Amino acid sequence: VEEGYIMDWSRTRQGYLLTGDCTRHIHSWTPRESDWLVSQQTFSSHNSSVEDIQWSPNEDHVFASCSTDRSIKVWDDRAPAHKACQITVPNAHEADVNVINWNSA
After folding, report:
1. Where are the alpha helices (DSSP H) in 1-105?
2. pLDDT at residue 55 tops 80
3. What is the pTM of this model?
């Protein structure tokens, strides 16, 4: 796992954690009895540093991410990692996209 600074705990699946790193990868962490299992398959559709990750507040397996590549992506972790990116909004902003959040309405 490379250096990163973003993480989000799932609100619907106790103990599940996502982290994003500076080399465009998103990692899934699963709790075990005495430690953590970090998935060897990374979610890697971004072209640059992952700036924010948010689990969906309603869907157990869905999360969104944004990046310095100016894109927003929506993922489903039930799919194989190379097919998990379900929606991509390229050039979502004219500069880096640093923060993402789900609409609570």
Report:
1. none
2. yes
3. 0.91
